[in-house]
Write a structure and sequence with these properties.
This protein is α+β, with helices and mostly antiparallel strands. It has 13 helices and 34 strands. The strands form nine sheets. The protein has an eight-stranded mixed beta sheet.
Length: 693
C-alpha cells in the first residue's frame, strides 16, 4: 500500500490521547460532610483501581476511529491490484462534441449533450477520457483524466458558438492526444450533425492504426428539412439635394425543399424599424429584397435585416454598419491649351465613382497656385509641365506631408531641371510602336493598384496596345510596378516623406494607347487615385472567426483618437476587453455575432466605433455527409483494435492510482461508524456507573 499524503501518518501519535484519558485518575466531585478528623491518624491512600483501564472496548473504539481517520487523510492506494490487471482493457476515449451554430437547429444541441453524457457514464473505471468542443476551432478541458464529474460538468456547461464547422482542427488535436497515449485501445466518439461543408479540412488527419471512430449523428437527412437565411446585403448610394441616400437590398436564400410563403423581412436602422416586407421563396431558391432609401447623416449607422425565426434562428439576422460616403478630392492639372481634351477620359471615369466618390476639380498649369492644394488629397499632372516657383515648392510640400501625385506623360510633358525633385525617374523622348503596338510584359499583381486584376475573369491589363510611350530611367529609391514588353518602365512608384508619387509613361486618353477603350480602364484609374489618396474602404461587416487589428489606420481614425494607446472593446454579449496598443495584444478575435463596440479610452469625447459581425453563411447549408463515410475517410476503416506489448511495464503516477481507487472514502466511512459506536458504548457505560453509585 502507498500513501499520497504520507505526512498525515505522523498523526498516529494522537492515538495515545485516548489511552492517557483512560489512565488519568478522576476525583469525585461530590462533597460529603463529615465530623472533624483532627483526632484521627493520617494514613496514605492510593487508588490503584482507578489507574487501571476499566473499559477496553471503549478505548479500542476510540483508537481505531482515530487510526482510520488519519489513514483516510493520508489517501492510501494499492499498487498490486493495478499491476494485476495490467490495463490490458483500458481505453483512451475522446469525445468530440460539435458546438457550431448549425447544432442549434431545433433540439440538436440538447440531444448531442445527452449523447456525450451517456458516453462518459459508460466509461470503465480504468478508462481515461477527454472532451473536445469544436466548431471552426477546437479546445479541450483536462486531458486523459478519470474524473467523470469533471468531464460531465464540462459537457453540461458547454454552449453553442456562432462559428461554422471544421472537423480538421478537432481531429488533429485527437491525433496528438492518441500519439502521447500508452493505453492499448484508442477510441473517439464524434457527435455532430455532420455537415458536408466541414469535410475538406480532414485531408491531413492520420489516426494511429487500429483507432476506433464512432460517429453519432444528431441531424436528420429528412428531405423536408428547411432553413431560410439572410445571406448578405447590398448598398446603392445616391445623392439628392446635397444629402446622401442609401438603398439597402437583402439577399435571402431558402435551403429547403418546400416553398416559403409570406415571409416577413424587416430593415432596422439605429434600432428603429424602417420597413417590413413580405416575400415568397421557391424551394432551394433565393431572392433579393429592396427596401426604401434611407438618408444618411454624418456618422455611421447600424443596420439589421431580420426575417421571421425558423428552426435555425442564428442565420435569420444580418448586421451591418453603413458609413457616410467617402469622398476623395482630386485636382487635375492640365495643359494651358484651351482646346485640350486630354482630361476628358480621366474626369469622366472618376466622375462615375460612387464608393468612394471623387470630387474633381480641373485647372491649367498656368492657373495653378498653392491655394489650389487646400483640401485636396491627390494631384494629377496630366500631360503638362511641372509647376514652377512657389507653386512647385508647395506641390513638393504637399507630397511630403502625405499627398498623392500622379504624373501622366504625353506630348506636352516637360520636367525642367529646376523643378521639384519628385519624379520616380527621368523620362525621355517618346518611343513609337506604330505597327502592332507594344503591351505590358510585366505587372506586379501583388500591388494594390493591380491586385484587383489578379483574380480570374477580373480583366486583363496586358491586352492594352501602346503605340507611343516615354522611356523611363527609375531613380534608386523608386519601384517599378509595370513594364512594357521591351523592358521599359510603364508605372513607377516613389515614396517621398509621407506621400506617394506615381509616374505613368503613357497617356490616360486614346491618343497614345487604347487603354481608355478597354473595360479595365475604369477600375485601373480608380485604383490609381485610391492608392494615392491612401483610401481604405470601411468594412460594413466582418465574419465570425476573423481578426481585426485595432492599430490599423481605419480603426484609429474611426475611434477619433488619433494615435491613442488604449482601447476598450465591448463584445455583443457585454464582455469588456482592454487593449493596450503596442503590447502585441491589439488583435481582437471576433467570436460573437452582433455589434462590437470599440471605445478609445484616452479620448475626451469618445464616439465608439461599431463593428458588425455575422456568422459564416456556408454553415446554413445543412446538407449532411454520411457519418460512416466520414469515419472511414479518417481511419481507413471503422472498428479494430491496436496491437500493443502488454508485457511492458507502464508507469502510473500515484495521483492517478489514488484517483482511480478513492480508498480514502472507505476509511472515512469506517471512522464515522466507529465514532457512532463509541458514542453509543460511552453513553451505556455512563448510565451503568451512575446506577451503581
Amino acid at each position: 500500500m502507498g500513501f499520497l499524503a504520507p505526512l498525515f501518518l505522523f498523526g498516529l501519535g494522537g492515538i495515545a490521547v485516548p489511552v492517557v484519558i483512560h489512565m488519568i485518575q478522576r476525583e469525585r466531585k461530590e462533597i460529603l460532610e463529615f465530623p472533624s478528623l483532627m483526632f484521627m491518624r493520617k494514613i496514605s491512600f492510593h487508588s490503584f483501581r482507578r489507574q487501571r483501564i476499566r473499559h477496553w472496548v471503549l478505548l479500542l473504539l476510540r483508537c481505531a476511529a482515530l487510526l482510520l481517520l488519519i489513514i483516510a487523510f493520508a489517501k492510501p492506494f494499492f499498487r498490486s491490484s493495478i499491476l494485476a490487471t495490467g490495463f490490458n482493457g483500458a481505453r483512451e476515449v475522446i469525445v468530440l462534441l460539435d458546438r457550431s451554430y448549425s447544432m442549434g437547429y431545433n433540439n440538436r444541441w440538447d440531444i448531442a449533450k445527452d449523447a456525450a453524457t451517456g458516453v462518459l457514464n459508460d466509461l470503465a473505471a480504468e478508462d481515461r477520457a477527454t472532451v473536445i468542443l469544436f466548431d471552426n476551432e477546437a479546445e479541450s478541458g483536462l486531458r486523459s483524466i478519470t474524473n467523470r464529474a469533471s468531464l460531465t460538468s464540462l459537457v453540461a456547461e458547454a454552449e453553442l458558438s456562432d462559428a461554422g464547422t471544421r472537423y480538421g482542427p478537432a481531429l488533429k488535436l485527437v491525433e496528438g492526444i492518441f500519439e502521447e497515449s500508452d493505453l492499448p485501445r484508442l477510441e473517439t466518439v464524434l457527435i455532430s450533425d455532420f455537415q458536408r461543408v466541414g469535410v475538406d479540412s480532414t485531408s491531413e488527419v492520420n489516426f494511429p492504426e487500429g483507432t476506433i471512430l464512432t460517429p453519432i449523428a444528431v441531424g436528420s437527412s429528412d428531405a423536408e428539412m428547411s432553413n431560410v437565411s439572410v445571406a448578405g446585403v447590398l448598398f446603392d448610394r445616391k445623392y439628392f439635394s446635397g444629402r446622401e441616400r442609401i438603398q439597402v437590398s437583402a439577399r435571402l436564400t431558402n435551403r429547403g425543399m418546400a416553398s416559403v410563403i409570406d415571409l416577413g423581412v424587416t430593415l432596422e436602422m439605429d434600432g428603429r424599424s424602417i420597413e417590413t416586407l413580405t416575400i415568397d421563396l421557391l424551394p432551394n431558391g433565393s431572392t433579393t429584397v429592396d427596401f426604401s432609401s434611407v438618408t444618411l447623416g454624418d456618422v455611421p449607422m447600424n443596420g439589421v435585416v431580420r426575417i421571421e425565426s425558423d428552426a435555425l434562428p442564428t442565420d435569420d439576422v444580418f448586421y451591418f454598419v453603413v458609413s457616410p460616403g467617402q469622398i476623395v478630392t482630386v485636382l487635375v492639372v492640365g495643359s494651358s491649351r484651351e482646346s485640350d481634351n486630354s482630361n476628358l477620359f480621366l474626369t469622366r471615369a472618376l466622375g462615375i465613382g460612387s464608393e468612394p466618390v471623387f470630387d474633381i476639380r480641373t485647372i491649367t498649369v498656368d492657373d495653378f497656385s498653392a491655394s489650389d492644394l487646400d483640401g485636396r488629397q491627390v494631384v494629377v499632372l496630366n500631360d503638362t509641365r511641372s509647376p514652377s516657383g512657389q507653386a512647385g515648392r508647395s506641390l513638393a510640400e504637399f507630397v511630403e506631408t502625405g499627398g498623392g501625385l500622379l504624373v501622366v506623360t504625353g506630348e506636352r510633358s516637360v520636367w525642367p531641371a529646376d523643378s521639384p525633385d519628385l519624379l520616380p525617374g527621368q523620362f525621355g523622348t517618346p518611343i513609337n510602336r506604330l505597327s502592332r503596338g507594344g503591351s505590358l510584359g510585366f505587372v506586379d499583381y501583388s500591388h494594390p493598384v493591380f491586385e484587383l486584376f489578379s483574380a480570374p475573369r477580373s480583366g486583363d491589363v496586358t491586352t492594352t496596345r501602346f503605340f507611343r510611350y516615354r522611356p523611363v530611367t527609375p531613380v534608386p529609391s523608386a519601384t517599378v510596378l509595370a513594364r512594357f514588353d521591351d523592358g521599359s518602365a510603364a508605372l513607377t512608384e516613389r515614396r517621398i516623406g509621407n506621400g506617394i508619387v506615381l509616374l505613368w509613361a503613357s497617356t490616360v486618353d486614346s491618343f497614345w494607347n487604347d487603354l481608355a477603350k478597354k473595360p479595365v480602364y475604369l477600375p485601373f484609374v480608380h485604383k490609381l487615385v485610391e492608392y494615392l489618396a491612401d483610401y481604405t474602404p470601411p468594412s460594413p461587416w466582418f465574419s465570425v472567426g476573423q481578426v481585426i487589428n485595432l492599430s490599423s489606420q481605419e480603426i484609429r481614425l474611426s475611434a477619433r483618437g488619433g494615435s491613442a494607446a488604449e482601447y476598450v472593446v465591448v463584445s455583443p454579449s457585454g464582455t469588456r476587453i482592454s487593449v493596450d496598443i503596442g503590447e502585441n495584444t491589439e488583435f481582437i478575435d471576433l467570436k460573437e455575432q452582433g455589434f462590437y463596440e470599440i471605445h478609445n479610452a484616452n479620448a475626451v469625447d469618445d464616439q465608439p466605433l461599431m463593428v458588425a459581425v455575422n456568422v459564416d453563411f456556408a454553415e446554413s447549408d445543412l446538407t449532411m455527409v454520411d457519418p460512416e463515410e466520414l469515419a472511414s475517410m479518417i481511419t481507413g476503416r471503422v472498428g479494430g483494435e491496436r496491437t500493443v506489448n502488454t508485457d511492458s511495464t507502464r508507469f502510473v503516477s500515484a495521483e492517478d492510482l489514488e484517483n482511480r481507487q478513492s480508498i480514502w472514502w472507505y476509511f472515512l466511512i469506517g471512522a464515522l461508524l466507529l465514532f457512532i459506536a463509541e458514542t453509543v458504548v460511552s453513553n451505556r457505560l455512563s448510565r451503568t456507573v451512575m446506577s451503581t453509585d
